[in-house]
Amino acid sequence: MTLIPADSMGTPLTRLDGYAKVTGTAPYAVEHRVDNPLYLHPVQATVARGRVTAMDTGGALRLPGVVAALTVFDAPALADTSDGELSILQDDHVHFRGQLIGAVVAETAETARHGADLVRTEYETEPHNTELRADDPGRYAPDQVNPTFPTDTEEGDVEAGLAEAEVSIDRTYTTPAEHNNPMEPHACIARWDESSGRTEVTLYDSTQGVHTVRSTLAPLFGLEPSQLRVLAPHVGGGFGSKGAPHAHNVLALLAARRCAGRPVKYACTRQQMFALVGYRTPTVQRIRLGADRDGRLTALAHDVVETTARVKEFAEQTAVASRTMYATPNRRTSHRLVALDVPVPFWMRAPGECPGMYAAESAMDELAVACGIDPIELRIRNEPGTDPESGRPWSGRHLVECLRTGAERFGWAGRDPAPRARTDGDWLVGTGVAAATYPAMAMPGNTARIEFADQHYTVDIGAADIGTGTWTALTQIAADALGCAPTAVRLRIGDTDLPEASVAGGSTGIGSWGSAVVAAARAFRREHGDHPAAGAHSSAPAEENPDAGKFALHSFGAHFVEARVHRATGEIRIPRMLGVFSIGRAINPRTLRSQLIGGMTMGVSGALHEDSVRDHRFGHIVTHDLASYHISAHADVQDIDAIWLDEVDEHSNPMGSRGAGEIGIVGAAAAVANAVHHATGVRVRALPITADTVLSAGVQS
Ligand code: MOS
To answer: Is the pTM of this model over 0.85?
Structure first.
C-alpha cells in the first residue's frame, strides 16, 4: 500500500461547513427551496397485528386545504414488493403497531396532520407478540448475521475447556431496545415530474448515502437509476438509522406520484421515528468464561438471543467481537433470533460490537474479580498474537498500549481492587475499565472525479457528511493527494449526479471515499501533471486494498470511567471518563476527537439512560419522545476526553486511517458498569443501570 504524504492530514482544520451550519444557511432535507410544496402526514396502524378492513377518508378530503389521501386500498402499486419493510400500502396487512397505512397530503403541515386525524380506520385484529424471551420456542438461527458473518462459530471444545477451568463465570446480560435520535429527524422532499414526457423523480433526503437510497428505491418504483436523483448535502446525524431508506421515503414518493408536479415534504415527527426508522435490537446474552488461576482463558462461549421482525429479517452480529478479542483454545459464539410483531430492527452505532462488548467486557471484569487479578492485567494476559478468528497477523493491534497509556493518564495505579473501598461523603466512588474493538472495513463501489479550472480542483464524489466531518476530512485528503492547499480544493458531495459513493456506515466512509479521491488524484496527476490546463479532468475508482486478505484490520480502544453512586438515592454520576484509541492515522484531529467523544457519550447514554420501553399489551414504544426516552445531556457528561496513539496503518488504505465513527461507543457501557460495581459492589447485568436498579440491589446496605 503506497500512502499519500500527510501535509494537511493531521492538522485540525475547522469544519468547512461550520459557518453555513451555525448561520442556518446549510440546507437540511426539508429546507431545500422548492416551488409550491405540499405537506404529508401519515396514518399509522393502531393495532400490532391484523388487517385493515376499512379506511374512510371522507372527513379528511372535505377539510379545506387537503389535496389527497392515500390508503392501503387505493395507493399506487409498487413494481417490487419483496422488501417487507418498504412495501407499504400494497395490501391490508398490519405487521406492527405504527406501520404506515395511509397519508394525507395538504397545503400546510398542520392541515395534513389534522386531515390524517380525521381518517377513520377499522381493523380485524389478530393476537400479537412483541416480547423477546430467551426461551421462546420459535427462536431460530438465521443463515448469517450482519453483514455476512457466519451465525455460529466453534473452535476447539468449549465444554471441555470450561470443565478444566479453575475459575469460571456463567452470566447472562441483557440490553434493551434503543432508538437513534439524530437531531434532524428523518425527512425528505419528493418530487415526481412527468412534464417532459419522461418520468423524473427527485428526492431531497436526510440520508447516510444518496446512492444507496437510489439503488434501493428506484426498482421499487420501476424507475431506472437515472430517473431518480437523490440529494443530501447536509445531514443532521444518523448513527445508522439513515443508512438505508425506510418506509417514510416510500410514502413520500407514493404521495408525490399521486400529486405529480408538486413536491411533497415529509418530516417525521420525533414520535413517529420510534416506529419507522429502525432501532437497536434488545439482546439476551449468556457468557461463559473458563480460566486458569492466573486468568488465562481456557474457554469462552458467547450465546445471543435477539429480536427480529416477522415482516423482515434483521440479524445483529452481537457476538462477533468475541471471535477476535482474546486468545483461548476453545471458543464458541452463536446468534438466535425471535421473530416478533415489531418494526424491523436496524443499525445503531456499532450494531453488534456495542451490545456484544457490553456483555463480554462486563464478564471479563467479573473474571478479573473472581481471579483476584487487575482487570487491565487480565486483558494483557489474554492478548492473541494473531487474529484468533482468521489466523492473520494484525495490521496494528495496539490494545495493550491503549490500556497502559490510559492507565497512566487516568491514574489507575494503586487502585484498591475491593469494591466500596472509596467514599466521598454519601457518594460511593469507583473506577472501571473496558476494552473495545471495531473492524476497519472498506466498502466497494466508490469513484471520484477531479477537474481543474480557475486555479481550483473540483473534487466530486456522492459521499455523505452526517455531522462527522466529511466535508473537511475529504478536502484534506484531496489536498494531500493532489499536492495542493486545502483552499485549492472545491469538494462536492451528497448528490447522485456525482460519482458513485458507498454509505456512511460501518465506520467506512472516509476510508472508502478517501481511497477513491486518492485514486482520482493519482490519475489526474499522471494524466495532467502538476500544471494542468483549465478543464483537465480525470476520474478513477478506488483501488482494491491488496492487504485486505493478508491482515486482520481492526481498531482497538480502552475506556476508563470513574463512577459515583449516591448511597441513599442511588443516583449515578460519571465525573470522569477517558478513552484511548488505536485507529490508524488521525486525518483531522478536531473532527476525530468529536467522533470519539460522541461515541463515548452515546455509550454512557446507553449505560445509564436509553431504554425503549415497549408496552406489550399494545405493541408500541411508550418512551417515544425526548421527555421519556432519556439521552445523555450536557449535565450528564463532565470531564470526558479521548486520545489516540500516534500511528499510521500501512495496510488499511492510502491514508493509513481506520475509521473512528463507532469505536468510541464500543465497550463504553461495560466500563461504566464495571465502575459502578467497583463503587458499590453491585453488579448490574441489565442495561440501563438506573438508580432504582442499584437501590433494589442493596446499595444502601
Ligand atoms: Mo453506522 S450504525 O454503521 O451507520
So the answer is: yes
- CA 164–ligand 1 middle distance (angstroms): 40
Looking at the annotation, which residues are catalytic? 662
> Which protein residues are within 6 Å of ligand 1, measured from CB?
208, 239-240, 243, 347-349, 351, 505-506
Write phi, then psi, for 94 (nearest 5 degrees).
-110, 125
361-393, pLDDT tens digit by residue? 999 999 999 999 999 999 999 999 999 999 999
Say how many Å lie between the CA of residue 225 and the centre of ligand 1: 24
Residue 202 C-alpha from the chain's centroid:
26
**CB under 8 Å to 175, separation ≥6 — which residues?**
280, 282, 283, 285, 355, 358, 359, 606, 686, 687
Q: What is the CATH number of domain 18-27+444-541?
A: 3.30.365.10
CATH 3.30.365.10 intervals, the chain: 18-27+444-541, 144-178+280-440+550-696
Query: 696 versus 460: which is more confidently predicted?
Result: 460
- Alpha helices of 507-631 — where are they, by DSSP H? 509-528, 589-608
Q: Within 10 Å of residue 531's Cβ, how many Cβ atoms?
A: 7
Residue 347 CA: which ligand 1 atom is closest? 2
**Which CATH fold would you assign to the domain 32-127+183-237+243-276?**
Aldehyde Oxidoreductase; domain 3 (3.90.1170)
Per-residue pLDDT, 65? 98
Q: Where in the chain is the domain with CATH 3.90.1170.50?
A: 32-127+183-237+243-276
What mean pLDDT comes out for the span 382-411? 97
d(CA 315, CA 215) in angstroms, rounded, equals 22
Task: Give the tens place of pLDDT for each residue, 233-284.
Answer: 999 999 999 999 999 999 999 999 999 889 999 999 999 999 999 999 999 9
Q: What is the CATH topology of the domain spanning 144-178+280-440+550-696? A: Aldehyde Oxidoreductase; domain 4 (3.30.365)
